[in-house]
TrEMBL record:
<dbReference type="Pfam" id="PF01370">
    <property type="entry name" value="Epimerase"/>
</dbReference>
<dbReference type="InterPro" id="IPR001509">
    <property type="entry name" value="Epimerase_deHydtase"/>
</dbReference>
<protein>
    <submittedName>
        <fullName>UDP-glucose 4-epimerase</fullName>
    </submittedName>
</protein>
<dbReference type="InterPro" id="IPR036291">
    <property type="entry name" value="NAD(P)-bd_dom_sf"/>
</dbReference>
<feature type="domain" description="NAD-dependent epimerase/dehydratase">
    <location>
        <begin position="9"/>
        <end position="214"/>
    </location>
</feature>
Length: 306
């Protein structure tokens, strides 16, 4: 497959669960990447340079966005330039890693700092990681019901936990800066990220105990397919501020979607005809607008009937 000319991308949080798969996918598609993180990239064979950066410190972020991607940058006369795109995944990944106030302030501050620095340095493409948790149920208090199915980007959302609220605040910062600076900022509401080995280790319990997957709306995103999504976002210009659900196509269940939801969420309205196996956290927009086509359907890796 031939890919378009690669871009220079600064990626924050690339050493985390998602980034360690997304960055190699970006490299395969011809991009060059600088990783901003507090720990090195876990795969030395990629030759990805990690610049240790505290994203909650505005000065460090501004400086990191005007840094050579590797030592080869010193070999020509061109001083460090801002990147073509910034992909911001760096954050506390969920609640209960640190106290709630720290999770909120760090995530919001980091997102603000990255967006502000990128916009003021003239970067025209910014992609930020939001979360499925904004749909309220994942870390909501008690056994909550979803508002309706499918879950899509136009729904009014009102999460109650610090992590999800921090992600919603990040979306609002992105919307405002996209308008002020006339740039593209795409916010990805990322589903439950699945690494390749987790199909064998985790999917047996996911399928046999459906109630445990309610918090994820019985949906997921393969970490490698998330890399494809990031590439599509980098390549597609001119959309301004956008929110995209970043999920794979199908429900993680033995039974077709409508039958499954009627059993597990009988009181939740279904607002349109859904595909036979369509994931409740809908990726229809990202397929229609960006052309996403999943490569890693979960049934390739785990047969629920065996």
């Amino acid at each position: 497959m031939a890919f378009p000319t690669g871009k220079r991308i600064v990626f924050t949080g690339g050493s985390g669960k998602a980034g360690r798969y997304v960055i190699p996918e970006l490299l395969k598609r011809g991009h060059s990447v600088l990783n901003l993180d507090l720990v090195p990239f876990p795969d030395p064979s990629t030759n990805i340079m990690t610049l240790k950066t505290d994203l909650t410190k505005s000065g460090e972020v501004f400086n990191a966005l005007t840094t050579h991607f590797n030592f080869a940058g010193y070999e020509n006369a061109l001083v460090p330039q801002p990147p073509d795109a910034v992909i911001h995944f760096g954050a506390y990944a969920r609640n209960m890693l640190v106290p709630d106030n720290e999770c909120f302030q760090a995530n919001v501050t980091a997102t603000y700092n990255v967006i502000e620095a990128a916009c003021k340095l003239g970067v025209k493409k910014i992609i930020i990681a939001s979360s499925e948790t904004v749909y309220e149920v994942c870390f909501g208090q008690g056994d909550l019901e979803y508002t309706s199915f499918p879950l899509d980007e136009d729904m009014d959302v009102n999460p109650m936990d610090s992590y999800a609220i921090s992600k919603l605040c990040g979306e609002r910062v992105a919307r405002g800066f996209a308008r002020r600076f006339d740039v593209d900022i795409y916010s990805l509401r990322i589903g439950n990220v699945i690494e390749p080995h987790e199909y064998a280790t985790d999917f047996p319990s996911y399928i046999s105990n459906p109630k445990t997957r309610k918090r994820n709306a019985w949906s997921y995103i393969d970490a490698r397919d998330l890399g494809q999504i990031c590439d599509l976002c980098v390549q597609r210009d001119g959309l301004g501020f956008q929110i995209f659900n970043a999920t794979n196509d199908t429900i993680t269940a033995r039974f077709p979607t409508r039958q499954f939801l009627e059993h597990w969420c009988p009181d939740t309205p279904v607002t349109r005809q859904m595909g036979m196996w369509e994931a409740p956290l809908s990726n229809a927009k990202i397929k229609d607008v960006l052309g996403f086509r999943e490569e890693h359907d979960w049934r390739k890796y785990y047969n629920p009937d065996q």
